[in-house]
Structure formats: C-alpha cells, structure tokens
Design brief:
It is built from 13 helices and 12 strands. By secondary structure, it is an alpha+beta fold. It folds into 2 domains: 90 residues; 252 residues, BirA Bifunctional Protein, domain 2 (2-Layer Sandwich). The strands form 3 sheets. Strands 2, 5, 6, 7, 8, 9, 10 and 11 form an 8-stranded mixed β-sheet that branches. Strands 1-12 form a two-stranded antiparallel sheet. Strands 3-4 form a two-stranded antiparallel sheet. A hairpin with a 4-residue loop joins strand 7 and strand 8. Helix 2 runs antiparallel to helix 4. The structure holds 3,4-dihydroxyphenylalanine. 3,4-dihydroxyphenylalanine binds next to strand 10 and strand 11.
Length: 376
Amino acid sequence: MSLQDDIAQLRSTLTTAIAAAVDEQTLDNVRVMALGKKGSVSALLATLGTMAPEDRKTAGPAINGLKNEIAAAIEARSGDLKGAALNARLAAETVDVTLPVRPAPTTQGRIHPISQVWDEITAIFSDMGFKIAEGPDIETDWYNFTALNFPEGHPAREMHDTFFLQPGADGTRKVLRTHTSPVQIRVMKQSNEKPAAGYLTPPMTPPIRVVMPGRTYRHDSDQTHTPMFHQVEGLVIDKDSHIGQLRWVLEEFLKAFFEVPGVTLRFRPSFFPFTEPSMEVDVQCDRSGSEVKIGEGSDWLEILGCGMVHPNVLRNCGLDPDVYQGFAWGMGIDRLAMLKYGMNDLRAFFDADKRWLDHYGFRAFDMPTLFGGLSS
Ligand code: DAH
C-alpha cells in the first residue's frame, strides 16, 4: 500500500472515531490513539526518519498535514461536546426567577409566648428600676418553706403539691421549688452574707428592688395547670416601704403589661405564711366576649398574691424587722400570657406543636421594650 493510501485510511478511521466520540473522555482516547507517543499518526511520522531525502520531501508535508487535520478535528469536536454539555446543564438546572424568595431561618423561627411574656415582664420592671435575680430550681426545704415562715408540719406546706427528691446522705429531701418565693430568701440573705453557691446575681443590699422570674413545679395537671409552670416574684425592701407603694407598682405594671391606659384593682384579704397582711389581687375585666379584656367591664379576675413581708421572714434572712420592712408579690407568667394573648389551654404551651407556635409565637428580633412597644 502506498503512503497516500495509508494516510487516506487513517484519516477516514480517525475522522469517524472523532465524530463518534460522545464525550470528552472518549474523544481524548481517540487523541491518544492518534497523536499520543504510540499513536498511529505519530508512528507514521516516525517513518520519516528512515526515508530517503527525496521521498521525505513529499511525505513530510503529507503526514504533518494529516496530523494537523486530526488535531483540528479533535479540537472542533471538543468544542462541540463542551457546548452540548453546557446546554444540557442549562436545560436541567433552570431557576424559576418568578418564585418568591424563601424566608431566612431568622424570619421563620418563633419565640415562645412564655419567653415573650417573661421578657415583657422583666422589661417593664427594669424600666421601673428593678433588678432581676434568679435562683435554683432544686431547693432545700428550708429555702422553699421554713425560711418563708411555713411552720414544720403546718398544713400550708400541703397547699403546694410538692415534688420531693430522693433523700440525700443526711436524710433530708430536696424539693423542686413550688414557687419563686425562695429566691426572695436568697436575695435577702445574700444582702448581708458572703455569697454562697447557687447565686446567679451579684449581692444586693437594701433598698432592694428585685423581680425574680423562674420555673416552678407542682403535682398538678389540667387545662390551667401543668406540673412545670412559671412565676415571677417581686420584692421591695427598704426602711419605709408601704402598701401604697405596692399598690402603685402593681397598677403601673399591669397597665404597661396589658397595654391599656388604666386598670382597676381589688385587694382581698388572704393568707400566705410569708406575708402579713396577705392579699390577693383581682383586676377588673370584661369577660362577656370570647376574649378577656383587661381595663374595662364589670368582672374580676384573680391575678396575683402579695403582702407585706412577714417579720419572721426578714429575721430568717438576717434583716432587722425593726429597721427594714418590705412588700412582695408573686404571679403566674403562663397565666398572664394566656390572659394577654387569648390562649385558653395551658397544656398547649408545652406540646411543642409547630403550628401552635407559628400562630402564637413572636418574631425573634421584636424584642419587647417599653419605648419600642411590648408586643408590637
Ligand atoms: N408564692 C405564692 C404562691 O406561689 C405567691 C405569692 C403570694 C408570692 C404572696 C408572694 C406573695 O411574694 O407576697 O402561691
């Protein structure tokens, strides 16, 4: 066979192979087969060295011509394949620019109504000059009861359906605190003692103005009671604190909290071991519609317990009742949340139902402040 024939055959085989290559990898195999070190075109080029100079004159340009032709064909096919691959991707990965933007997680997540109301309450009292204190959920019997003037074996201890922990080495049983009142004891005791373990706040000395939100526990469960619930405790200790101030503080708080211009309160005599006198406070409201409206109407709704701090309690905390006096109150955060936001089953608060939270929850960046609006 003549060189011309060899070239023609090689051209035809390679051109067919190039045209048949369906992807870059197959095309590269063809390139190696033809132009690689051991490729067919390279082999042909190698024969030039053994040729007579006369023959080489015509064979050289012919073989090099084939080489260039094949290289160009591979190049062109590669361009086509790249273009086709890109078109396929563009067809597969379309973006519908008319779709609405998906909201960011920060705009989708919701703050639980309890956290919201907790923040609203602390914002209002902070604005009135109160500090915030917290104490442990697991309390000793002394802090939860004895120091608060609950006598040993007194039926008032039974009023709270207490969760007791297993007895410790010394035989005493700790409790899950049944109210936030033991934090009062911690704050007052700390005001004249070296800080003990369990404190989360720096010492306060009289005049003390403090609110103490926290989790509380009682063996109770129905539509308006859950075994874990939340309270906020308030305490003011000074040399001349009096009931008039208590009344003013509560009125100002309830107006701000319910975001109404005025509230009417009714103080009923009651009993708590740690206050004397003790009172329960009702707020005037309208219950004729489906929602409770505070600040209008002719019904009364019990909202909190309060009183003047019992001298025994001051004494138990190392404060002289002949020098200091004060007032305290306690209220349910969950109950306040239910009233303000019209949620009627407390158990739903703890169901972790996303649909409920989407409906009743609050936006993460709407921090309650008095100047920016509490619940806007
Ligand atoms: N600790 C009481 C309770 O859980 C509520 C309470 C009543 C707190 C009167 C007080 C108070 O500080 O003065 O039922």
